[in-house]
Write a structure and sequence with these properties.
alpha/beta, 4-stranded mixed beta sheet, 344 residues, 8 helices, UDP-n-acetylglucosamine1-carboxyvinyl-transferase, Chain, Translation Initiation Factor IF3
Length: 344
């Protein structure tokens, strides 16, 4: 049985989620220890337990915690996972509070693509959380690339949920396929357009307008490229700035999240800087999209993409991937700001 050290690399919940996904895809059981050992709150948090339970449900898996025969609980730092057959169907996953629902989807999406029948999933929890892919990123950046690989996945946001109140909801329909196709993304192609949207919930409209003013100045955007949106029937306060960059080969999303005691101008400046760095680099995909592409490209048997220097999440994900699958991954420095990732 594989033993995974949950404290390696960036040492976060991504090690557990990627291990669950790869275990379901390969049929290999694993034991993970030192889960989030170096974090302020070590061990399993609510959203990690939700991802574990979702993976166990769709994979008909056996799970035990640190003590044999007992289910994992909040705060535990070890568990064992025995995958079974993938079971498609209609399922509802409630993460609780503002735990990231998109991270739970990330855990079960690829295994359900290999299932014998379609699945319809409903998720409730956080949809726009710091340190997690927001719904817009999945819908507009990640899923379109999966579709180019042959997948048929549709996602619909019913209501956004922000930290700390949560209360968001979205649905996903996954059609099974026999195999993902390889794609190569050496460049992003011609720039088609840039848009920015400020989404606010139970906050003054001037917050959105101040963010958009900064983005417009830094990215040279016109009024028709800007939009402000107020959440209907809000579940709690929240704010996210979404910058969308559309090119011929790829669509990228950059976000900034409003925080207490952080000026709207600062939120916007950081998001605009990330978008500008991407535009100037010439890379096809940004750092966070690169993190997400490793597993589907490996499942397809190969692929390549140019990206900015990888994050610690990318390197940790790659380490977990190599534990479960015998696949070649090489990284070639192509310029001062870009690297080419070759898989398979």
């Amino acid at each position: 049985m594989l033993t995974i050290d949950g404290s390696r690399g960036e040492g976060g919940g991504q090690i557990l989620r990627s291990s669950l996904t790869l275990s379901l895809l390969t049929g290999k059981p694993f034991r993970i220890v030192n889960i989030r050992a170096g974090r302020k709150k070590p061990g399993l948090l609510r959203q990690h337990l939700a991802a574990l339970k979702a993976a166990a449900q769709i994979g008909q898996a056996g799970v035990s915690g640190a003590s044999p025969g007992k289910q994992p609980e909040l705060g535990e730092q070890a568990l064992t996972f025995y995958p079974g057959e993938i079971a498609p169907g209609n399922r509802h996953f409630s993460i609780g509070s503002a735990g990231s629902a998109t991270l739970v989807l990330q855990t079960v999406l690829l295994p359900l693509l290999t299932a014998p029948a379609p699945s319809r999933l409903v998720f409730e929890g956080g949809t726009h959380n710091p340190f997690a892919p927001p719904f817009d990123f999945l819908q507009k950046a990640f899923l379109p690339l999966l579709e180019r690989m042959g997948a048929r996945v549709s996602a619909k946001l019913e209501r956004p949920g922000f930290y700390p109140a949560g209360g968001g909801k979205f649905s996903v329909v996954i059609q099974p396929i026999s195999k993902l196709n390889r794609i190569d993304l050496p460049e992003r192609g011609k720039l088609l357009g840039i848009n920015a949207k400020a989404l606010i919930s139970q906050l003054p409209l001037h917050v959105a307008r101040r963010e958009l003013k900064v983005v417009a100045e830094k990215l040279s955007l016109q009024k028709e490229q800007l939009a402000e949106e107020e959440v209907l029937n809000p579940q709690g306060p929240g704010n996210v700035l979404i910058i969308e960059i559309a090119s011929e080969q790829v669509r990228e999303i950059f976000t900034g999240f409003g925080e207490k005691r952080v000026a709207a101008e600062q939120v916007a400046a950081q998001a605009a800087e990330a978008a500008q760095n991407y535009l100037e680099s010439g890379a096809a995909v940004g750092q966070y999209l690169a993190d997400q592409l490793l597993l589907p490209f490996a499942l397809a048997g190969g692929g390549s993409f140019s990206t900015l220097p990888p994050t610690s999440h990318f390197e940790t994900n790659l380490d977990v991937l190599r534990r479960f699958m015998d696949i070649d991954v090489s990284i070639e420095q192509t310029s001062e700001t870009t690297q080419m990732v070759h898989i398979g």
